[in-house]
Amino acid sequence: MLQSLRLHDDALRFFRSCLDIRRHLLGNEHILVANAQHSLAKALAITGDFKEAVQVERDAHAFFNSRFGAEDPRTRETAEWLSELTFNAVRSAKLSRAAQEKIRDIASAAANLVPVDRENSSEAKNAKGDLPIDELLKFITGSSSSKPKPKPGRRAKGPKGSRR
Q1: CA 19 to CA 132: how far, in whole Å?
Q2: Looking at residues 119-136, what average pLDDT do you find?
Q3: For 81-104, what is the mean pLDDT?
Q4: How far apart are CA 24 and CA 1, in angstroms?
């Protein structure tokens, strides 16, 4: 219910409390504790905490496998979840490591930049950024004031000398 409302932190607190209460009342080796572990692992996966989800799901899978065997549907389901969670945990760790390396590379490149004295450099003397807008537009378009402007009212001739 809480997850469908996107209240994932509240849902995690609920699942953790549920697991703690069941462990306290029933002990670690009870099917309701394993079910709570499985539910908590799913909630952790939704929040992207794959590392903890793998640990919790591993405990649930170990219980179902030891109690009911490898062919039990609960054991197979937790095995599938464990496989998927492990894959996502590895992928998440790789992406995180790659992002950290990229940040380090960017920081290193930024540290190697040399500041430029814009006022005294030769580039600044040839820069057009300080021109008025009209002059800057003329520079960009390549137009100059020496070009003759067409006379108003005259139309260009179309193909074969006919007027359009």
Answers
A1: 71
A2: 65
A3: 88
A4: 24
